[in-house]
Amino acid sequence: MKRSQVNQFIREALGFFEEHQFYLPLWAQWTPGEWASKGKECDEIRENSLGWDITDFGSGEFLKQGLTLFTIRNGNLKKGDKPYCEKIMFVRENQITPLHFHWLKMEDIINRGGGNLCMRIWIAGENEVLSDQVIPVQIDGVTTLINPGEVLRLKPGQSICYKPYIYHEFWAENGHCLVGEVSTVNDDLKDNRFLNPLGRFPEIEEDVPALHLLCNEYPS
Q: What DSSP string runs through 90-119?
């Protein structure tokens, strides 16, 4: 992925969040130059991978398979101090986040506005393959039985709870979607199991200077 594309996707996300009146921390718009002047007072941001996360999951086709995330707050499994995480996501219409589950993380996924948030889910069976079991999930606190692979649509305001070992993929329809995530601590380096092995963080081709740093790019 080119840096010029990353910059463009961040600009578009900022516009989308503003349109939906969702406001990010002030440091979300710090420049690389501003980051270079920050010291230990910003260690929580650096150590817990807060901030921008633009990924194409190694596809090379971000608009088809990709996701824009901003981690607002997160704990750290090594420290065990803060047990929760919050993210906001810009899910584009027909842009797929590929099938995966988490061994540890439990998360509520919330449609905060825009189009419908569509998803398909499965329970991970023996050897972590897709199971044909019916999946009991909580949708807005209501126990709901979902058939494996069935397309589920969350309208704005609705939410679903993914427990560990529930495979899920999702995309937006009828417009882009503002998606919230409230979860236990997030660890993208060790707690993602994709059904088909994929890259989590893209390699960046530096064709232009960075507008804002990604969550894995902060200077130490």
A: EEPBTPBEEEEE-SS--EEEEEEEEEEEEE
